[in-house]
Amino acid sequence: MEKLGRRPEGAVRHVVYWMRMRDMRIEDNRALALASELVQQGGKGSHLIVLHVLSPGDFAAHDRSPRRIDFVLRTLAKLREQLAELDIPLYVTSHNERKKIPHRVLELCNSWGVSDITGNIEHEVDELWRDIATVQQGPKAGVHPHFVEDTYVVPPGAVKTNDGRPYSVFSPWNRRWTEHLSKHPELLDESPLPERNDASIRKDSKLGKLFEQEVPEAVPGFECEDREYMHKLWPAGSDAARRVLELFIGGKKGQMDFEADATGVDQPMTDDGAKDSKIAAYGTARNILSEHGTSRLSPYLSAGVISARACLRASRDVTKGKLQIGRDSGPAMWGVEVAFRDFYGHVLSAWPRVCMSRAYLLKYEDVKWEYDDEKLKAWMAGRTGYPIVDAAQRQGAKQGYMHNRGRMIVAMFLTKHLMQDWRLGEAYFMRSFIDGDFASNNGGWQWSASTGTDPQPYFRIFAPLSQSEKSDPQGEYIRHWVPELRHVKGNAVHAPYERLSKAEFEKLGYPKPIVDHKQARERALRRFKNPGEE
Length: 534
Description:
Layout: E1 14-19, H1 30-42, E2 48-54, H2 56-61, H3 66-84, E3 90-94, H4 101-112, E4 114-120, H5 125-137, E5 144-148, H6 170-183, H7 227-233, H8 238-250, H9 282-285, H10 298-302, H11 308-317, H12 330-350, H13 373-381, H14 387-399, H15 404-417, H16 422-432, H17 438-449, H18 464-471, H19 476-481, H20 496-499, H21 502-508, H22 517-529
Parallel strand pairs: 1-2, 1-4, 2-3, 4-5
């Protein structure tokens, strides 16, 4: 938290907290806590206002999915109720010209008599330019901007090599990140809740009217077609996020009810603490597609409905107060996954070209990609003839979410077996999923395509069959999401074209493999070894 100077005695000015799509919570919010502190310094009559700007132009430019926008709107509706209980108004406005958002925000601040505005830093290039413009224009408008770090546990730039360079390999970065956290445990501290506004705000001729403004149910052009199903599967709000976290930390490991809501079955913590919890089994269960072994917190983390700090604090609570990061236990392995989220944010900050559809490894920008619309459509629809790929793709299409192991499998298949440009897959995930987070999505796709930091080496190519047998050993995940294969017995479910008779296969109504694994692998190896050649 930055040190603040006192305002002149008797000055009564208001403060705006500018909420974005990455920090949609009241709890443990650095910029909101700072805004509340500024209000307390302002003296009697100073009030806190929360502002959120919907920008359809921004949504289109950044491939935001209708499901993600709907989740944001539902979250805002919950926040409006929470804030109103504290006599804090939430004002939601829409502004299509994204490059003029700073000007619009400062106009609103002037109309409300605002002296200060706070916000949490976003590290994507467009967002940085937006905030730089706000910092530059703010003082001229009589408004003082304050932007603070909140999105990542450790601020980007804080973890560097001995000679001051950013890391591009996860393992040494993770060791230094963990050391940094041990030296600065305050980075996990929870920020205080905002103080209640004085009730007089509701009688203010301008500010009182802000309580009347409601959150829209949809943004034109981004209407969510399966809204009712998404509401059931991914309930909005911080209470839902905490319940999902508690079920992961305290709930027992079990099979996934694929059509149940995202929170699963409510199971209390056992007397043995983490011993019988889902997090205890995370080290192995996280790679089994048919088990409810992951936290399913990604929609809440990507929207900032819960902080990554809160996740690590919860993990620490079940390991006798010691934060574990590593591979020797479920909680430690989950800590590594939270660290990966930070890592990709640090990469984005250090090498902003990844925000501009550029590969981190520039030597692979000349790799010869295929642009076959029919094969791309087959991949999107889950009709590739590779059951594990198709099952994962159909889960993503239905739920707006895909198991992380499934994401790696389908990304590697698109980029190595079909040799389709990784940018096509990256955009498809962002336009389809409810948990679209640019840094993590880009980092995952470039890892799979062997073009990013610490990438999967180009010569290591996932074999769909072995991935299928390892990650869905009984075939339950495949049978659920690919109903054509529901009655296929035994291990034939993993490769029905090869393991069934011709007559048996033809009765299934399931497609043949659209590419031969051996030939596809050889093509990928050839093209990555000699970028630019066929």
